[in-house]
Write a structure and sequence with these properties.
The protein has helices at about 25-35, 50-55, 100-105, 105-110, 125-130, 135-145, 155-165, 175, 180-195, 225, 260-265, 275-285, 290-295, and strands at about 210, 235, 300-305, 305. The chain is mainly alpha-helical and about 300 residues long. It has 2 domains: about 25-170 and about 295-305, Cytochrome c-like domain (Cytochrome Bc1 Complex, Chain D, domain 2), CATH 1.10.760.10; about 175-290, Cytochrome c-like domain (Cytochrome Bc1 Complex, Chain D, domain 2). The strands form 2 sheets. Strands 1-2 form a two-stranded antiparallel ribbon. Strands 3-4 form a two-stranded antiparallel sheet. β3 and β4 (about 305) form a beta hairpin. The chain is globular and about 60 Å long.
């Protein structure tokens, strides 16, 4: 029997209509966002930056099942990678309302379910901290000249969105036509059994699907927590697969430690061993080594002409 992805019973909930496109970010906004992405001053106790959970070597995923926040409260869901995140909507595992990068910043920074960076009700403190740094004042003035040196949380989120939108991964062996024969064979197997949901340039249909029977007792009810619709209980967004080989563990809760485990969790009989190896070779060919090591996306070493 063939392996194919199990579709959500009933209609999948698509993301909300896109808002009117904003002007493209400027280089100054991207560079400011890059510095902010690596700055732990965006968290309550100064110990957690966006990059704490989104590590470049893991394609801006985490490498752990979940990640606790500043209070030690366990994370609920596996940290997703950020490759091409500016081109994917909705943005998160189970909330179709999250369609804009700037607005989504609130989830880790001020969210309480669970607490991550712990700044609920304290976004003014972020502006105060950053404003104490003359270099930040210079960078905000360059990035948002209409507001002069004024540093606001809204501009923090806009700058972070600008940097995250620059996380483009399109130079894997798959993109360059440099796949091995094994990977090319795996692409054909993948197309037959997996591409119904893992479709498009980032290998996601961006819809919500359920891989196992709904469990009303599960601690994470997925899309149902937003919509309240029984058909959405236990449904999660199809994960994009760019750089998937370096983003283990897998699934919304990180419960699949390896690609073979994640494939098996799709609920149908396993592929023959040879085809399984071919599919894994194809998925490995989606790894963009340049993206994982690009210094322009890494922790900045200098700002305003001085070392950080």
């Amino acid at each position: 029997m063939s392996l194919r992805l199990a579709l959500l019973a009933g209609a999948a909930l698509a993301g909300s209509a896109a808002a009117r496109p904003a002007p493209p970010p400027t280089p100054a906004q991207v560079e400011l966002g890059r510095r902010l992405f690596y700055d732990a001053d965006l968290s309550a106790d100064g110990t957690m930056a966006c990059a704490t959970c989104h590590e470049q070597r893991h394609a801006f995923a985490d490498g752990n099942r979940t990640h606790p926040g500043v209070t030690g409260e366990p994370g609920r869901r596996n940290v997703p990678g950020l490759a091409n995140v500016g081109r994917i909507s909705p943005l998160t595992w189970a909330d179709p309302r999250q369609t804009a990068l700037a607005a989504q910043v609130d989830v880790p920074v001020t969210g309480t379910h669970p607490v991550e960076m712990g700044m609920a009700g304290r976004t003014g403190e972020i502006a105060r901290r950053l404003g104490a740094d003359p270099c930040y004042r210079q960078m905000f003035a360059a990035a948002f000249p209409a507001s002069g040196e004024q540093i606001t949380y809204a501009n923090v989120t806009r700058a972070l969105a600008a940097f995250e939108g620059s996380l483009v991964s399109r130079a894997s062996p798959y993109d360059r036509g440099a796949m091995s024969a094994q990977a090319r064979a795996g692409q054909a197997v993948f197309a037959r059994h997996c591409a119904a949901c893992h479709a498009g340039p980032d290998f996601t249909d961006t819809r919500f699907h359920r891989l196992a029977p709904a469990d009303p007792a599960a601690s994470d009810q997925g899309l149902f927590e937003v919509t309240g619709r029984p058909a959405h209980r236990g449904a999660f967004r199809t994960a994009p697969l760019r750089n998937v080989a370096v983003t283990a563990p897998y699934l919304h809760d990180g419960s699949a430690p390896a690609l073979a485990d994640a494939i098996a969790r799709h609920g149908l009989p396993p592929l023959p061993a040879a085809q399984q190896a071919q599919v894994e070779a194809f998925l490995g060919a989606l790894t963009d080594q340049a993206f994982l090591s690009d210094p322009a996306l890494a922790l900045p070493q200098k700002a305003c002409g001085r070392a950080l």
